[in-house]
Design brief:
elongated
């Protein structure tokens, strides 16, 4: 065994985390909202109709339970209860 005594290389792991949303993330969470709806290829005019429902404000974060899903330190999703 040539590698005897030497540490084996570690497999790089990705880090995932679920945490509470912060008020200063309102814009980011709004962008995620619109991007998520975009997956379904809705007509552009629908987004104007849904604007209020898809917009996350600092006040909404303060008054609701919102959890953010992070992948390698980047927020990639959220959910609100």
């Amino acid at each position: 065994m040539e590698n005897q005594g030497a540490p084996l290389p570690r497999k790089q792991t990705k880090k995932y985390m679920i945490r509470s949303a912060q008020q200063d993330e309102a814009q980011l969470l709004t962008e995620i909202s619109f991007a998520a709806k975009g997956y379904w290829n809705y007509p552009e005019e629908y987004y104007a109709i849904w604007k209020n429902e898809l917009t996350i404000t600092p006040e909404y974060i303060e008054n609701n339970d919102i959890l953010v899903y992070e992948h390698d330190g980047t927020a990639v999703g959220y959910y609100a209860i």
